[in-house]
């Protein structure tokens, strides 16, 4: 591994042309770049560096590249932008950095520059277009449910997975197929009511965001979230016109699309008069809390975004802050050993780590186990496991190894992307350890349902 990197050490290639660089629309801030003292504390926490082993695929190396491109000492072309693409955006480096370098803001500024100024190859463009024209739109995803259900029930999925054909044709399509969740009848259920009354005395009025993948493939998590909230005195409001939170396009530099979706989300909750806006997916929550930054240049939405962000709470963050009044029952007769999987955009993005553990420990008979390398990304990272399947595969393998080593009989996960990634690797290793969202566990405990 390279011990250090300077702009002079960036390898020259025949395609280098120093006329290509960042444009004038919010490039990475030189002041933030200069705050990095190149100490290297970030290296051991960076999942891409740990797998790829190259300095240019580490936070420190990427900051060097940003600086070199800013100073016109390196071009913004595929051979340099690939190192920005290799970043999972897990933000572990932000947590680890003793100098407080805001790498999250630096990479967030860099990704749109890459999308605007780097010519991707045709296959890459088409695959990304497929993702960003489908995943952030629940109605479009819903149209795929019947074909996907038939694909699974007909046995065709088993045939495809048993043959190497798809992997040879397109590793990215193979990666997408490998995380496809099981389509159940719940995916075809009617949408939830727009208002669900509190059980007993109403203490709060809260809005709930359904998500995209969550509402179709993990609808039982949303149902459990609503029941847990109402059991704790919350009247729940679910605006039917809400769409995508914009996390997927925002994390990949699709700024205009992300901003449009953010405006739609703000509009859908603006007249609900809620005390809090609740989200149960880590990646979505991190993006929702960034709306004020995303829309800072929009005079019509700047202040409205700030008001919206002030109300956004992860459901575990919210429940840990209020008095949890619902009675809880054991989930099984014997003690239940659970390992909690820290989602990066909860742990690093929102600094939420203790609250999920506090809530799980409230359930009688639950014993929590802590895995080695708990802060290491599982490799999902939004759509990273589809765009960078090789790196994601190794990270998923390491994550499963660490989770299983705890001896826990159940995995708790607060993010649908993490859950899909973990489920894939459990299946590939012939492991039957169940993985459930903490809200489902709390819901079962409240209703005295045994696992």
Please provide a brief summary of the model.
The chain has 451 residues and is α/β, with parallel strands linked by helices. It has helices spanning 30-34, 47-52, 59-70, 78-85, 92-96, 103-117, 122-134, 138-143, 145-153, 156-162, 165-169, 171-178, 213-217, 219-231, 247-251, 255-269, 282-288, 291-294, 302-309, 315-321, 344-347, 354-361, 384-387, 389-404, 416-428, 438-447; strands at residues 195-196, 204-208, 234-237, 276-279, 312-314, 336-341, 366-369, 410-413, 435-436.
Can you put this structure into words, describing what you see?
- By secondary structure, the chain is α/β, with parallel strands linked by helices.
- The chain has four domains: 111 residues, Alpha-helical ferredoxin (Fumarate Reductase Iron-sulfur Protein, Chain B, domain 2, Orthogonal Bundle), CATH 1.10.1060.10; 61 residues, no CATH class; 135 residues, Rossmann fold; 112 residues, Rossmann fold (3-Layer(aba) Sandwich).
- The protein has 26 helices and nine strands.
- The protein has a five-stranded mixed β-sheet. Strands 7-6-8-9 form a four-stranded parallel β-sheet, with helices on both faces.
- Helix 24 packs across helix 25.
- The longest helix is centred in the last third of the chain and has 16 residues.
- The N terminus is likely disordered.
């Amino acid at each position: 591994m390279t011990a250090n990197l300077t702009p002079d050490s960036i390898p020259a290639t025949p395609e280098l042309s120093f006329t290509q660089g960042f444009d004038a629309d919010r490039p990475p801030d030189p002041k933030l770049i200069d705050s990095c003292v190149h100490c290297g504390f970030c290296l051991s926490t960076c999942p891409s560096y740990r797998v790829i082993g190259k300095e240019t695929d580490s936070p420190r190396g990427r900051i060097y590249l940003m600086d070199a491109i800013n100073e016109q000492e390196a071009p913004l072309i595929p051979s340099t932008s690939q190192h920005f693409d290799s970043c999972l955006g897990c933000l572990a480096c932000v947590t680890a950095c003793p100098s407080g370098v805001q790498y999250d803001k630096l990479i967030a500024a860099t990704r749109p520059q890459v999308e605007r100024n780097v010519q991707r190859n045709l296959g890459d463009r088409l695959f990304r277009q497929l993702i960003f024209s489908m995943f952030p739109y629940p109605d479009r995803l819903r149209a795929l449910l019947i074909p996907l259900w038939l694909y699974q029930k007909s046995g065709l999925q088993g045939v495809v997975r048993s043959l190497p054909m798809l992997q040879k044709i397109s590793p990215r399509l193979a990666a997408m197929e490998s995380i496809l969740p099981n389509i159940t009848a719940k995916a075809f259920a009617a949408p939830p009511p727009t208002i669900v009354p509190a059980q007993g005395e109403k203490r709060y009025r809260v809005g709930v965001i359904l998500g995209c993948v969550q509402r179709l493939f993990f609808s039982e998590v949303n149902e459990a979230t609503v029941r847990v909230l109402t059991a704790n005195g919350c009247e729940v409001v679910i605006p039917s016109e809400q769409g995508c939170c914009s996390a997927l396009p925002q994390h990949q530099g699709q700024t205009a699309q992300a901003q449009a979706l953010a405006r739609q989300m703000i509009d859908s909750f603006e007249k609900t008069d809620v005390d809090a806006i609740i989200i149960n997916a880590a990646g979505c929550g991190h993006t929702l809390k960034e709306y004020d930054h995303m829309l800072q240049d929009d005079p019509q939405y700047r202040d409205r975004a700030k008001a919206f962000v002030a109300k956004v709470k992860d459901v575990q963050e919210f429940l840990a802050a209020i008095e949890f009044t619902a009675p809880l029952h054991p989930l099984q007769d014997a003690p239940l050993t659970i390992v909690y999987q820290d989602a990066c955009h909860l742990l690093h993005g929102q600094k939420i780590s203790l609250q999920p553990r506090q809530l799980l420990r409230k359930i009688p008979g639950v014993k929590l186990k802590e895995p080695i390398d708990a802060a290491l990304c599982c490799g999902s990272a939004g759509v990273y496991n589809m765009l960078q399947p090789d790196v994601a595969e190794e990270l998923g393998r390491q994550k499963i190894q660490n989770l299983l080593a705890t001896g826990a009989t159940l995995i708790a996960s607060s993010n649908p992307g993490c859950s899909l990634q973990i489920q894939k690797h459990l299946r590939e290793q012939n492991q039957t350890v169940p993985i459930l969202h903490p809200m489902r566990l709390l819901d079962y405990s409240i209703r005295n349902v045994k696992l």
